[in-house]
Each structure stands twice: as C-alpha cells, then as structure tokens.
C-alpha cells in the first residue's frame, strides 16, 4: 500500500524545512484539534480565544509575513500548514487565513509603521484576534458595490454600514473595515470596543460550523484620523488581501480532500460486503484511483503555484486557477467518498460529510467558482465578462 503522497512522490519536491513545518503542524492538529473537531462542529462553536495563542506559539499566524513577531516563512511552507489544518477542518484553516492572510496582511501591506507596531505582534502571538470586513449582505462577488461609508468629520472619520459572513467577527479585538469615501474605497482599523460597533454571531449554519461567523453593524462609529490604513487606495487593496487568502485555500482544500480519501480507503479495507472487503471490488478501486489521481494532480499544481509565489512570479490568474481546481476537485472527492461509506458516511463518526459541507462554503468564498472561471476566461480571451 502507498499513500497519495508516495504515489506522486511529492515529498521529494519539498525541502527538509518544509517537511518539518508540515509534520509539526500535522502533529499539533492530531493532538490538539482532531479529537475535538466533531464535537465543535456538532455544537456549532470553535474555541478561538483558546486555540489562537497555541497557533501563535507555532508561528502559524501571519507566518508568511516579515517582522513584527511574524515567522517570515515561505509561501509554500504556509500552504503546507494550511493543508494540514484543513485536513482537520476548513473552519480551523479559515480562522488562520482570516487572521494572517486578511487582517494581518492588510495591516502589513497598507498600515503605517505605528499601526504595524501596535497590532501585528499581538496578532502574531494569537493574543489579539482580527477580522476582515469586506463582504456585505448585498455585495459578495461584487465588493465594489459596497454601501458602507466613511465620512470626514473634522479630523475624525465616521463609519456607517454593515458587513456579513465575517469569520472571527464576534471574537475579534480589531476589525479591518473597508468603506467607501468621497474619493475611493479605503481601509480602517476599528477596535471592536468602539461605540457603535456591534457583532452578532450567525447561527443555523450547515457548513463551517466549527468556525465563528458574524454580522457586523457600524452605527456612527467614530474613529480618529490615524485609524485609516494610509496606503489603502481603492478596491485593489482588499482584493490584494483576498489573493493571499485564496493562495492558502489552494493547499487547504486539498487537505480536506486527502483526509476524506484516507478515511475512505481505511474504511473500504475493513468493511465487508458480500463476504469480502469493499476495497476488493473493481468499482471501488476505480473510484479510489480516480480520486487519488485528482488529488495528486491538485497537490502538484499547488506546489508549482507555491514555488511561483516564492519567486514573486505568480499572477492573479494562476491563483484563480489553483483555487478553482482545488475547491472543485476537493468537493467532488468528498462527495464520492461519502458514497463508498454508505450510511456511515452521513455521521460525525467519519469526517467525510463534515468536509463536504465545509467545502460547499470554501467553493464559493474568496471568489465563487464562476468568478474564477471568468478571471481565467478574461486572461485567455482578453474579453471582460463580469458585466
């Protein structure tokens, strides 16, 4: 027997340091997260305040950023960490992505030196939690239509509006809020204890249940002038942060798929049907072979994109290609695995349907599959089909 990693010899493409980072995250996930994840999912909760400092000690929060207490690891190493976290649950990887690739990256890319010094060390340590407020109730795929506004009032800014589907929103200490001004879209750092700022946790979810999701309301939230992210200039600023988060998804979604496939292979080897193991049937092996092939191809593409990113040669179209491929193939694998587990596949005794439910969200957040198809279509044809 071989694993998918062995089948495609992907370890041979990693440095010793990258393998060590991957294995360290996998060991932490197995010890600290995996024993509890089914219960967290069933209860619709995640102990972010408790887990974040532990992730910080491992250097996983903003791990691809330089300075300010951040680990400064390679993009590929960050991707491998995301893969191991999402092999446990998409909600765990989402928490890390929002903290590091969205909130911390926004401050690191567009903040003043004073803002970086004030916020980033605590966020890297997991002592301070951040969220990223871009999506609104009526504007998901079209963030440029946002209605949240920031108006000047003397030296202050006053923000009004709402944001929706905000991971970490109700447990965050600081929210990166994107708002329309008279000139352009700008980013603001909003301490969550600011009067007029409220966060309501969103319940009744059937996906990403082991993740904190909130709706944010801003009602005459008054901020000092230095709350503005000074280098944020237009919609391109939050979109640059989204590209960082999408990169983590390229690896992360494949971690969920791998966990489904591993659990299913083990199940089929021990489950007897008509007096022999389910794994010994040709149709079962055909399904497993096809899933292993797509998983292996996805991992090779992810590693290639990681290398391009480490050389600062990756484009937005390549990130879109990776995100589209990983999420689309991962959810197919999860659904196919469920068929092999039969009725057992719908229970939390196995991770498969939990991953499939989570991947329904991963498929559509940070750009739906259709959005990424149009990104690729524009790159291939030169024609913009977004409007």
Structural commentary:
The structure is a single chain. The chain contains twelve helices and nine strands. It folds into three domains: 4-124, Butyryl-Coa Dehydrogenase, subunit A, domain 1; 130-227, Butyryl-CoA Dehydrogenase, subunit A, domain 2 (Beta Barrel); 236-381, Butyryl-CoA Dehydrogenase, subunit A, domain 3, CATH 1.20.140.10. The mean pLDDT is 95. It is α+β, with helices and mostly antiparallel strands and 387 residues long. The chain is 52% helix and 14% strand. The protein has helices at residues 4-8, 16-33, 37-43, 48-57, 75-88, 90-110, 113-124, 236-270, 282-310, 316-341, 352-362, 369-381; strands at 130-133, 149-153, 156-167, 174-180, 185-191, 197-201, 213-223, 272-273, 276-277. Helix 6 (90-110) runs antiparallel to helix 8, helix 9 (282-310) runs antiparallel to helix 10 and helix 10 crosses helix 12 (369-381). It starts with a helix and ends in a 6-residue tail after the last helix. The protein has a four-stranded antiparallel beta sheet, with helices on one face.
Q: In the CATH hierarchy, what is the architecture of the largest domain at level 2?
A: Up-down Bundle
Question: Strand pairing plus helix content: what structural class?
Answer: alpha+beta
Rg for CA atoms? 21 Å
Beta-strand percent range:
5-15%
Please name the CATH topology of the largest domain: Butyryl-CoA Dehydrogenase, subunit A, domain 3
| Silhouette | globular
Q: What number of domains? A: 3
Mean pLDDT: 95
Order of helices and strands: HHHHHHHEEEEEEEHEEHHHH
What is the number of strand segments?
A: 9
Give the end-to-end Cα distance, rounded to a whole number of Å: 50 Å
Strand ordering within the main sheet: 2-3-7-6
Give the % helix.
40-55%
Query: What is the CATH top level name of the largest domain?
Result: Mainly Alpha
The parts where pLDDT drops under 50 for at least 5 residues are none
Number of H- or I-type helical stretches = 12
């Amino acid at each position: 027997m071989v694993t998918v990693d062995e089948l495609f010899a992907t370890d041979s493409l990693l440095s010793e340091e990258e393998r060590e980072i991957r294995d360290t995250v996998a060991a932490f996930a197995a010890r600290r997260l995996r024993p509890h994840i089914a219960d967290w999912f069933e209860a619709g909760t995640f102990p972010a305040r408790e887990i974040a400092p532990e992730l910080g000690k491992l250097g996983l929060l903003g791990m691809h950023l330089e300075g300010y207490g951040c680990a400064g690891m390679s993009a590929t190493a960050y991707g491998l960490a995301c893969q191991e976290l999402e092999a446990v649950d998409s909600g765990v990887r989402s928490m890390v992505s929002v903290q590091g690739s969205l909130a911390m990256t926004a401050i690191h890319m567009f903040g003043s030196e004073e803002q970086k010094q004030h916020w980033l060390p605590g966020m890297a340590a997991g002592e301070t939690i951040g969220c990223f407020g871009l999506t609104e109730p009526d504007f998901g795929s079209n963030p440029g239509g946002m209605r949240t506004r920031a108006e000047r009032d003397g030296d202050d800014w006053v923000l009004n509006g709402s944001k929706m589907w905000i991971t970490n929103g109700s447990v965050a200490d600081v929210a990166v809020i994107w708002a329309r001004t008279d000139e352009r879209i700008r980013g603001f750092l909003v301490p969550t204890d600011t009067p007029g700022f409220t966060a309501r946790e969103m319940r009744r979810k059937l996906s990403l249940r082991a993740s904190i999701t909130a709706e944010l309301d801003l009602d005459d939230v008054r901020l000092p002038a230095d709350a503005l992210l000074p280098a944020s200039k237009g919609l391109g600023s939050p979109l640059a942060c989204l590209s960082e988060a999408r990169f983590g998804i390229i690896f992360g979604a494949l971690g969920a798929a791998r966990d489904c496939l591993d659990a299913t292979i083990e199940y089929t080897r021990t489950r007897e049907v008509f007096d022999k193991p389910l794994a010994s049937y040709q149709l079962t092996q055909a399904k497993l072979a096809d899933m292993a092939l797509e998983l292996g191809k996805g991992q090779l593409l992810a590693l290639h994109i990681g290398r391009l990113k480490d050389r600062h040669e990756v484009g937005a179209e390549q990130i879109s290609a990776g995100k589209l491929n990983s999420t689309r193939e991962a959810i197919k694998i999860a659904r196919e695995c469920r068929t092999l587990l039969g009725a057992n596949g719908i229970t939390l005794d196995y991770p498969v349907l939990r991953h499939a439910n989570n991947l329904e969200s991963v498929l559509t957040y940070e750009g739906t599959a259709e959005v990424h198809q149009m990104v690729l279509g524009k790159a291939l044809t030169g024609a913009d089909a977004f409007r």
